[in-house]
Amino acid sequence: MIIVMKQSATVKDIESVESRLLDLGFKTHPIHGDIKTVIGAIGDKRLLNVHAISQMQGVETLVPIMKPYKFASSELQHTPTIIDVGGVQIGGKEIVVMAGPCAIENEKDFVDTAISVKKSGAKILRGGAFKPRSSPYAFQGLEEDGLKIMVAGREATGLKLVTEVVDTRDVELVNKYTDIFQIGARNMQNFRLLSEVGMTRKPVLLKRGLSATIEEWLMAAEYIIAEGNHEVILCERGIRTFETMTRNTLDLSAIPAIKDVSHLPVVVDPSHATGNWKYVPALAKGAVATGADGLIIEVHPNPPSALCDGPQSLRPERFESLMDELRLVAQAIQRTI
Amino acid sequence: MIIVMKQSATVKDIESVESRLLDLGFKTHPIHGDIKTVIGAIGDKRLLNVHAISQMQGVETLVPIMKPYKFASSELQHTPTIIDVGGVQIGGKEIVVMAGPCAIENEKDFVDTAISVKKSGAKILRGGAFKPRSSPYAFQGLEEDGLKIMVAGREATGLKLVTEVVDTRDVELVNKYTDIFQIGARNMQNFRLLSEVGMTRKPVLLKRGLSATIEEWLMAAEYIIAEGNHEVILCERGIRTFETMTRNTLDLSAIPAIKDVSHLPVVVDPSHATGNWKYVPALAKGAVATGADGLIIEVHPNPPSALCDGPQSLRPERFESLMDELRLVAQAIQRTI
Amino acid sequence: MIIVMKQSATVKDIESVESRLLDLGFKTHPIHGDIKTVIGAIGDKRLLNVHAISQMQGVETLVPIMKPYKFASSELQHTPTIIDVGGVQIGGKEIVVMAGPCAIENEKDFVDTAISVKKSGAKILRGGAFKPRSSPYAFQGLEEDGLKIMVAGREATGLKLVTEVVDTRDVELVNKYTDIFQIGARNMQNFRLLSEVGMTRKPVLLKRGLSATIEEWLMAAEYIIAEGNHEVILCERGIRTFETMTRNTLDLSAIPAIKDVSHLPVVVDPSHATGNWKYVPALAKGAVATGADGLIIEVHPNPPSALCDGPQSLRPERFESLMDELRLVAQAIQRTI
Amino acid sequence: MIIVMKQSATVKDIESVESRLLDLGFKTHPIHGDIKTVIGAIGDKRLLNVHAISQMQGVETLVPIMKPYKFASSELQHTPTIIDVGGVQIGGKEIVVMAGPCAIENEKDFVDTAISVKKSGAKILRGGAFKPRSSPYAFQGLEEDGLKIMVAGREATGLKLVTEVVDTRDVELVNKYTDIFQIGARNMQNFRLLSEVGMTRKPVLLKRGLSATIEEWLMAAEYIIAEGNHEVILCERGIRTFETMTRNTLDLSAIPAIKDVSHLPVVVDPSHATGNWKYVPALAKGAVATGADGLIIEVHPNPPSALCDGPQSLRPERFESLMDELRLVAQAIQRTI
User: Fold this and answer.
1) What would be the CATH architecture of the domain defined by A83-332?
2) ipTM of the complex
3) Residues A136, B306: C-beta atoms closer than 8 Å
4) B to D CB pairs, distance under 8 Å
5) Average pLDDT over residues D8-32
6) Per-residue pLDDT reduced to its tens digit, D45-85
7) Do residues D49 and C103 touch, judged by C-beta distance below 8 A?
8) Where are the alpha helices (DSSP H) in chain D?
9) What average pLDDT does this structure show over A230-244?
10) Do B211 and A216 touch (CB under 8 A)?
11) What class has domain D2-63?
12) Cβ separation D46–C137 shorter than 8 A
């Protein structure tokens, strides 16, 4: 921790800060510049009540030196985390594609879609049984019936399942059915829910919050890991900006940024980010070339009749041709799909 | 609903859209401009699967005519909602000030603070027993013990209580102690939690999400009201922008904007918005002059030792003088504090 | 300047950085923590090519200690700047109201408006002769004819003039007519234009850029002051955010934040910020109570027929009653209008 | 234009609006829904003073049907624009790479860099002679001397030149030297400068403003085209968001969005977007795979000693290997570099 003192700080102010730091068990290293003084404080930051210092007379600002996350940091673990979901490895050389409809609507459509996306090369089947919707009047999902349909999709194809959980009370239930928990963007800082999935031993796909910084996102991952569950997959799905031509702004820079500071795998959701199926293929290819470890793409047999997010869903045949295009892009960067 | 057809739409495209609308039970009113055609669709929008239409050949965009919220809208209720919390009226001529520490730390400090803010003119006592913190390593609150301390504060002063609930599983517990539920910014779109407090008959202070539009905020209120609980108090607490000199950007424009489209009362939290106690008095006065129905302000007997958000807390004596200033501002706009 | 070294930095990396700093004329103060080393560098930062250091092996990040602006900073000048515009003082106890139409359209309307706003208590007359418009097909202003009309308004009322300049080539021309130059939001980082008005000795009203941080805004002021013109008035006019119910988000927190770090006066433009006349009175009162040194408000005799920004303009009679309301608010905070 | 009337609008309100529209030369088509009335207005929108209508009694909102840009729109021109810069075609099958240092510092380094980037496959040479810098104390460029050095780089390599112009007064001068004008992000809405380069017949690389929507960006292009210069190349270079780990947020979604509504070519600047050379290769590949028509990349022989933006510059050898990687990605999407 570095404490920057104001230009107007007096010798007494500086001494008081040092004295407080020493009381708290820190070693101090003041540097007296021509205009300002800064004080380096060495010790266990958990001992430091940061506020106590920031409000002392003459203090301008505190500069943290250590990152606030630990388990999620590449400072702790240098090699990339590879998550094994029943044989499907996320974070390795292969780019894993997750596909399926936004919401599960009925068994026939879901199983047909599952068979189709498997044929195209998807390895994980997505589908929503609990849907967080902006409007209380919109379709909220089939709940446990939806989970049962998902299992039918898995049995028909061998694909692994990923589905969202939105309430701490449902974690146990969803755990019975899914292979990967999804935490949605709106729940990225629902800390109780994070802790609850952290107490299971299932992989968690953690979507970035609409206005979450990369650091806050990693802190959310830290909540899960701190409970003992190290299997966190980050999912970039667009952030909120002023632009209105796309639903959100897909932040592909987050991929190299995360690879720089963390060891966790990152997948990209171009469907929710753009809200428009026409833009999905271009951004799916862009995400792969940028270094994503996976994609999660909405596919629906008949988008105009979808109960949720039809406009962003690809038809199975468009998904199939996209997968062919993605394989070429993956190959160009020495990876596979 | 207005359907705008593309310039390149064919007669057949237009006919298909009309035909689909008629099948769905709508009356259609096409307007053929020189360059584009638009189709007005009249009927119950709940019948309309919007996606079905937006993805049809030749459709450029859909323009909704009705607001997505109903109960929260001033179109339904023209007079302002006044919420009575055991005799304290929120939304009337009097501006209601809520004050207290960020987190409840111990009974003595809390009760002392309660007595002090009551003396200064606060009507509601705030305090956090369940704290959503960005870091899993930060103080998370005293939970039920904190709630019991809150009650001691109420007993010592007669002030009403407002405290946050962060988990659907805790609603029943918190309901036993509090007078007003607080839903925090990070949970504004935790729809299950909204429904759960909607099923109680206690007032709910609904904080605006960090990146929530006013419309999304009103939709969150709609979730609560749709369950039968009409007692929603909106709380503006700053939105996330690119500016870093303040923690968030307090959006006081939200006050007149909400007064224009809704009947719900709005209070303002300058403490969380700025994250800096030095800016709190200026913005508290600004909020009152702009038309806020109340304020929620953090007060702590010794901010440097606070376990949470000390830098944004006022000392009791500064709060007292601020209340004196606020009374003059309220008077200038024909209201009282 | 503080150089934070990576956890993985070697002794050799640290020595290389120190050696480079010494070569550049700095004194170095390394602090070896348990996990990371930081190096304090003391000396004239103008000597320091920051990039040279930030890219050296083992460097994690650089932390500047000094603010990047100097003349605009309250570290240099502790007392507030008061700008005298022919007897009208901006930055003192009196809150100065500037009013008038967005664009100057014809002499009669302009002079009538001038007489009316003077009667209501405005001290400065605003009007646009050069209009920066998003569309090349929109009305671009009367140019020099507009400036002549402004002078007629001044002659009829004694009010001082403020008008925008948008091109370095027009500075000399506008200088002949106006009392205050306005630099619009879109030109806040048109550095050549800033330097050009910096070379005059007329006050400059510097609007905040749509996505400018407060620090960048002060750096823009620094461009003007660095040329020798110390008469800079900052004008908050809303920043760009995701919210769409108002045109921009008025950032009233900028008022106390600027008062904290700078000595320059701040005025607020609620008209452009909201884009909606209905919200202007509430936010004008809010700005005054928050501590603004002035307001700039659009007034038009017949908003529906205005050639520019009619929807945000007040009618003269609404402006008059607003001024009455503002006087009471100013009085409540011990200021005058 | 569609006029949506309020729920509370009276028959008389509706009649007044219709009557006003008829006076303005429009044909009106009212649609009376169960709750609200909307009025379709057909005619030449240039006749319509939008404000006149939006402020009438009972009007809720106006919905424009036509896009505000014309020449930049794919509604006017269906085939992509290909811009020929002395034989280098931008917007065709080949992806054009522009490379060079941020600022021109001296002839030797610049010519060496030019020779090197040409060898690696760049087709256009970039370099700044006029630099818009946030600080008045930073290096502002060599001006005409820099332009002369650029020409030496062209002569040594045959590469075409792109350089920024920041002042209307310099357009004639820069025109003597450059092959492509660059308009920087901070000047995207410097409308006078846009018009001035619009009056030349040289291609213009138009960078997206830091907080410009895609629509505003296309309106800026419209300013150039409206003066008769159709040779506009759009350049995405990151937008301002709340994220701080990258300097800006590169919005690759803008590529498919622009391809959807415009015929203009789009290039991407990953160097300015991220501000960090480590992230440049990943995003350069991502941009190509997403469909960019070109890239503009900063290359400097010795980034730590660069006078401007060293941290985002690639060394020539890293640029060379990146070009090899980009060729594979281009090939994977059936394009070339």
Assistant:
1) Alpha-Beta Barrel (3.20)
2) 0.94
3) no
4) 46
5) 89
6) 655 566 678 878 899 888 888 888 989 999 889 899 999 99
7) no
8) 11-23, 50-54, 107-120, 144-157, 171-177, 191-198, 214-226, 254-261, 270-274, 280-290, 316-332
9) 97
10) no
11) alpha beta
12) yes
